[in-house]
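#structure-requests
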Amino acid sequence: MEEHELRERKAPYAPISALREFLSKIRNVQVPNRVDKAFLQKLNVASNNEWALISALKYLGIVDDRGIPTSAYRRLLSDQTFTDTFRHLVERSYRSLLEMGGAGMSETDLQNYFRVTSSPSQAKTAARFFREVAHLAGLDEGTIRPLNDVDATEIRPEQATTSRPARIEDDREVLLAKARLVEKLPAPRSDWSASEYAAICESFVRMLESLDGRPAGG
């Protein structure tokens, strides 16, 4: 899935218990042709929350837009490949948020982020889902790795020296990330109080600061 598609898709808000149960039960059944409501009912998973879970599976890349299991689905079936695969999926799906320090954000900042980037009505549950999958993926410290990390080998210390071109590219990516974030800052709405809008703006300032580790403009 392309990065712009990830940004346009609404963040998932399914119960984390449903996702955990799904990941456990698929190990005991044959890989289906398609993950749909009927398949989830057969597994006795996510009762009354089937569509929310399917949306989450699509967002994470466990199934594609048609519900067909991806190669990642199959790697999640094995203890040997589950941990790296799941972490990779979460890193990729929430990459922009993690780059802003999302794993360390307060609950208020997370909810404000999802309020303006996804769905105002589901901001609270989307924030909770992100927090839970980040924990499940071992991303509590907010450390992200290269997108191809599932297949990467360890980098030796002597290989980790950052060259000038790499630093320039990193700076460019930070600027682009800031630009994308600023574009998402909404105009005031009639159903928001002044204090609510101020809190949203303050959250954006903190997210901008977290992109380069220092106060914006400092």
